[in-house]
Amino acid sequence: MMEILNNVLADQFRYLLPEIILVAAACVVFLGGTWRADRNLWGLFSLAGLVAALAALSLTSDWEAPGGMVAVFAAPLQWDGLTTLTRIMALGGGVVLLLFAWKEVPDRQAADHHACLLIIVAGVGLVAAANDLITLFLALELISIPTYVLLYLPKHDEAAQEAALKYFLLSIFSSALLLFGFSYLYGMTGTTNLSAILHTLNQETSARDIPILGQVAMIMIVAGLGFRITAVPFHFYAPDVYQGTSNVGAALLAFMPKVAGFVALLRVFGFVLPDGVTPRGGLAGTGLSDQLPILLWFLAALTMFLGNLLALLQDNIKRLLAYSSVAHAGYMLVALASTPFLYGDTSGPNAASALLYYLVAYGAMTIGAFCVLSYLSTPSRSVESVDDLAGLGQSQPRVALLMTIFLFSLIGIPLTAGFNGKFLVIFGAMAVPGEHTHLYVLLAVLAMVNAAIGGWYYLRLVAVMYLRTSHKPLQPERHTPALATLLVCAILTIGLSLPPAANWLLEATRNAVAPKSLPARVVQSDR
Amino acid sequence: MNEPTFDLTTYYPIFLYLVVILGFAAVAMVAVHLIGPRRRTAVKEMPYESGMDPIGDARQRFDVKFYLVAIMFLVFDVELLFLYPWAVVAYQEGGIPLVLRGPVFWGVLAFLAMLLIAYIYDWRKGVFKWR
């Protein structure tokens, strides 16, 4: 027993290879940047680091992961489908954001910027792998701390300072809330190992003698992670921060913390359960408190409505996209709220897989939209307000077409990844069986109403681009890496809606959240 | 229950340490008074407050250099915090299990290397230049 345990711990390092490569590359870039300030050199080096990490990931995911109860209950990290999928998302997002940042970051700051980006990517991978509350918290901080630097690096004006300070203060506040929730979780179960916690909480006679304890823990954890996914009562920072920081900073904030936040929610509440744990009462995620689906239901409804309604009032595109990012967090929360009722059904609709699908689609289209803004901006004239896009259909037809693709995907028009995502989310909510059917059909209807409201402000941008003319058309410089980002995002946005890629992604997300069975081999060694 | 009897002699290293500390403090103070040069100026007569003006509003802006040095100090402070427990249990009977000694050793080395990198980064960025 002890021997297995120690071997498992020693084994952990092998699977960490992608993150080790990323951090090592980040160290080299940090140090090297103090000798040479060269955006091309450090951009290429960071790109090589990301590609090497991807290669290492494809190597390690073939190795047989040490499975079973002993392995999972001892290890601070775990390796399953969700980990692999999240790491692919993080690394892919990292590559896209790196190309995006190429032009936007000045030579002098390129090294620091790219190194921080690499560490954030490593942090997202570790959040998905975390199997211990402490590891999870450290991984979340590994994302937050470089983000503070990233927000402040490219711009030093008052708005950027406000953005960085606001994000910093609210982020540490949310971390404190999260730790508070974790402390209750530890108090209830007596362990910090996530799998063991979920195992304990999902017993029929569980440690939930005092339901209020579980509720306090649940609310604190939802609040702490809600900040990262910009769920509504914790979204206040988003518009100001997105507006104040650079385009690439805003795109990064819209994607990376959301991935980390949602994956952490899936893990902590046990929407994705470890080997050999069956959900209590058949409802995944309610181990801590029965009230979780209701809480998520209200969060989802509020987040969708507030994000969409406030986006209607915005004239600044970055603020508009910030509220749109809040609204999309709402759609993803719809999926999260319906996850408990659809757990374990491998053939029917699966809300957790819909959530992951939506995250990928959302990443492609939002990063694409921010990249259009960055591509069109020149040092003398940055694209800020909606009116700046006027006449883009004539002056820059290709860029306007790309922007239209991203906006159509954000609306959820068929033949875009955004449509598939919304379809899966709403389909999942409609398929909730049992006594809560009415509530979830209502939630699905609310989501559809919100999709319609969202259509208004996205179409307004399209209309400004094609139906209005500008006295002073934008004259962006051609820039290859930014163009590559745009193309990759556009290909993903359209490609992920079509059969081969869409099927692959759906299969991958389903595998990521599928209940795992306990291999017989490990059951024996457990005794 | 067989409670071990309290024996003051087991704590003799602590008392020894106490004597050395007190002795050092006393010697340092006496030595300063005996051999230190004395220049009495108004500034020198002020109570010492780490270079800040001790009288006046406490809410004033500090130079950012103080923070940089403070964080640099913290790096090494935390480093020691982690190294002590490791040094104590690393090769002790019943400490770190044998299979884990290798990984933990390399982990500690990686930790030290990381701090070294941070130190070199600071140095290259000019944190130690008190301009």
Second rung of CATH, namely the architecture of chain B = Up-down Bundle
What are the low-pLDDT stretches of chain A, counting only 5+ consecutive residues below 50?
518-527
CATH class of chain B: Mainly Alpha
Q: How many β-strands of chain A, per DSSP?
A: 0
Biggest chain contact: A-B, 12 and 12 residues
Main beta-sheet annotation of chain B:
none
Strand-residue proportion of chain A? under 5%
Mean pLDDT of chain A, rounded to whole units?
A: 87
How many separate structural domains of chain B? 1
Whole-angstrom Rg of chain B: 23 Å
- Helix content class of chain A: over 70%
Mean pLDDT of chain B: 84
* Percent helix range of chain B: 55-70%
Largest pleated sheet of chain A: none
Tell me the overall shape of chain B. flat
Distance between the termini of chain A: 8 Å
Q: Any idea what the shape of chain A is?
A: globular
Which blocks of ≥5 consecutive residues of chain B have pLDDT under 50? none
Helices and strands of chain B, in order, run as HHHH
Per DSSP, the total helix count of chain B is 4
What is the structural class of chain B? mainly alpha
Overview of this structure, please?
The complex is a heterodimer of chains A (527) and B (131). The longest helix of chain A has 32 residues, at 158-189. Chain A has 527 residues and is an all-alpha fold. The radius of gyration of chain A is 22 Å and the shape is globular. Chain A has a domain at 291-521. Chain A has 22 helices and no strands. In chain A, helix 5 (81-104) packs across helix 21 (499-513) and helix 7 runs antiparallel to helix 8 (158-189). Chain B has one domain (8-124): Methane Monooxygenase Hydroxylase, Chain G, domain 1, CATH 1.20.58. In chain B, 62% of the residues lie in helices and 0% in strands. Chain B is flat, with a radius of gyration of 23 Å. The chains are: A mainly alpha (527), B mainly alpha (131).
